[in-house]
Records
---
Amino acid sequence: MIPRVRIEMARPRRGRRWIGCLALVGALSSCQIGLPPPLLSSLQATGEYGYADLALGDDRYQVSYLGPSQRSLRAADARKEINEAESTQAFDFALWRAAQIAQAQGFAGFRVSNVRTNVDSLVDDYYDPFYGPGFYPNRRFGGPIGPYWGPYGGPSPYLYTQTRVVIDVALLRSLDAGDYDTSATIERLAKAYPGATGSAPPPAG
C-alpha cells in the first residue's frame, strides 16, 4: 500500500510540473510572435530601425531614418532593385518625420537639403540552400520547400542590406517652389504606407 500511496501523490506533482512548463512555453511564444513596432517609430524605441532627429537651431533639424534590414540575393540586379526600394522608403520616412516636426510646431512646410544615403551590406554566411528569399514554383526543385540554390558548403547567395538616409530640414512659414507642404506630405505618405504609424488605415472609399 505504501508504494501505491507514493505513486498517487507523485502524479499530481508531475501534472503540475507539466502545466507550469506549458504555461512558460506559452508565455515565451506569445513574446516571440508579438508584432514588431510600426515602421514610423523612433530608432531609440526599436533599436533596429526608425527615425532620429537633431535640432540645429533657427528652425532647422537634421532628420535621419534607418530602414529595416532586408535579405536578398547577391546578384547585381537583385541588389540594385532592393537598394533602390530601400533608399526610396528611407527617404520617404525621413520626409514623414520632418513633416511631423513641422506639424507639431505649426509650420506650413519645410525645405530639404543635403540628402545623404548610406547602404550597409553583410554577407549571409549561414544559409539553407533549399530555401530562397521567396517561393518560385516553376524553378528546378521548386516544390513546397522552395527552389534549390546550391550544395551545402558553397558560397552564400544571400546578402543583408540596411539603408540610412539623412536630410537637413528647414521649417517654413510660407512655401516656395520645391518646398514640402506639411499636411500634404503627411497625407501622401500615409496613403503610400498604410499602417506605418501603427494605426489602422481608414476604410477605402
---
Amino acid sequence: MIHGTAIVHYTAQIGEGTNVWAFSTIHAGAVIGKNCTIGERVHIGPGVIIGDNCKIQNSALIYEGVTIGNRVFIGPNVVTTNDIRPKATGDWTERFRKTTIADDVAIGARAVILCGVVLDRGCEIGAGAIVTKDCIAWGRYYNPSTAALLMDRQQIPTNGTVRVEP
C-alpha cells in the first residue's frame, strides 16, 4: 500500500507487501524490499537500497549512498549523512561517502549516522547516539548516562509523582 500523499519516483522499486505511509518521499532508483514499513514523512534518497522486512519509522532521513540489509529497524527521526564535510555550494563528489547498515541492525530514535561507516550485523545503536566509526557485529552502542544530580531523599517518588520541598 502506498498512501496517496506519498511521492514515489517512477524508477523506484517497491517490494511486495511493503507499506509506504503519508508524506514520505522515495527518490529515483531507490530499491525497497518485500514486507517493509516506511513510516510517515520518511525521506529515501536516490539509489538507496533497503532489504526485506525492514521498519523505518516516521521522519527518518535515509540519504543517497546508504545501503540497508534485511530485518533492520530504524527509529523515528534517525538521520544518515553522505557528505563528510558539507558545504552549501560546489562539487561534493570528493566528499561523498557510502554507508552500510547490515542485516538485523536496530537504530534508536534520533540517532545520527555519519557517512562512510559500516554498522555490522545485529549491532544496536541507542537513541540519540552519534555514530562516527564502524560498529562491530552484535555490538551495542549507547550514549553514556551519568547522574548529574542526586535527588534528595525527600524528593523520591512515593506514589508515582516527584515531591519537591521548598
---
Amino acid sequence: MHQLVFSTVSSLPFAIGQVQDAGLIFLSKIASTAVSYCQEYGASDKEILATSTVGLALCTATLGVGLIIVGKFKLASHVQKLPTSVIGGYLAYIGFFCGKGGIGIMSESNVDHWSDWIHIFTNRKSCILIFPGICGGILIFCLVRKVRHMLTLPTCIISIIVLFYTILEYSGTSIDEAKEYGWISEAQTPPVWYHMWDYLRLRYVVWDALLQPSQILTWAAMTFVVALSSSLDVAAIELELGKKLDYNHEIKTVGLSNIISGITGGYTGSYIFSQSIFSLRAGIRTRVTGYSVAIIEFSTVILPVAVTSYVPNFFFGALLIMICVDLMVEWLWEVRRKVKTGEYFVAISTFLIIQFTGVEYGIVIGVLLYYGLNFVGVDVGLPKACLGSPTSSSCSSLSSMVSLNILEHVDEENGNEEPSNGGINKYGSVGTNGINI
C-alpha cells in the first residue's frame, strides 16, 4: 500500500516507499504493553489478538493523520529541530535492536534480558546456529564498505542462500532435517491471503489497553520521530536532485500512505530514500517502476506457499547483524572524530539511557541533557534548526552527516572520493529514517 501511494501522490516519480522501523519500534512497544495489560486482566487469546492487530492499525492510521497535520500547517521545519546528537544515540539503539533481533531469530530464542544473552552464548547449539549469521553479517558489512557498488549487497544476499543449499546438497542433508535442527524455521501453510484481516474484530478489542497514558505518550513520540525521519529523507533526496522540494507536500504524502496502510491493517512506512536515489541515478523518471514493485510485493503475499519456510534463519540474521555493526560502529565509535566532545557525550548517553528507559523516555531525557549541557556552557553544537536547508554551512558536523552521508556513499559508487563517515544509509533506509530490511 505504501508503494502504491508514493508512486501515485509523491512529486518524485522515482520514489520508493515501504514499511520502516522508525515507527515499528514504537508499535512493538504499544503491542507489548497492550498484551501485558490484557494478560493481567485475564483477556482471552481472541481479545489479545484483536487488541493488538486493531490497535497497531489504528496507531498507524492516526499517525498518518498527525503527519498530514504537520504538513498542512507547514510544521516540517520545526519537527526537524530535534538535536541530531540525540538522533545519533537513537540510531545506535536501532543498530543494537536489530542485532538483538538477529540473534533471537537465529537462535530461535527471546532476547529480552541480559540473562538471555548468557544462555544463548553458553549453549552449544545456539552458538552453532548464530555463528554463520554473525560472520556473514560482518563480512557483508566489510564488503559493502570496500566494494562501492550497488550490486554488492544483492550479490551477498543471493550468495548466502546459494551457499546454504550447496552445503545441504553436498552434505546429504534434507530441508526437513535442516528445519528440525533449527537452520530453517518451521512455517505453517499460509492462509488464503484475504484471511489476513480475520483478527481485525472491533468487538473483541480491549480499549483500555490502548488508551493508557503511556500508550498515548508512545504514539506521540512515534509521530514525532516518523515526522523527523521523513523530513530527513526528503532533505537527502533534495540534495541529490539538486532542486528544492516541498517538504510539507512530501510529509503529507507519507501521512496519506500511513492512513491507507492503517485502514487496510498495515503498519508505518516512509520513503526508502537510498533506493529512491539509486532509482534517480539510474535515470528512472517514470512511475511504472514503483507500480512494478507494488505488483511484485502483492504477488508474494498471495502465493500459496510461505517463502520464508525455504530461507535459512541466518540469512535474516546476517542482514540484521550487518545493520547492527554498521550503525553501532558509525554512531558509537567513528563519530567521535567528527563531532564536538559534548555532542559525542550526548549521543553515547542517549544510547545508554534508551537501554534502560525505552525509546520515548530516552529521547526526551537525551533532549533535556542536550539543552542542560548547552545551558551550563558545554559546546554541544547547534540544534538542527538548519535541517530544512541541509547545505547550510552553519550546521554542526553531526547534524550535517545525517542527511549527507547517503549522498556521499552514492557519489562513491560513481568513482568519487570515499566518504569520511562510512555511509550509514547504504543498505536500504537506515538511520533516523528507519531500516528497510
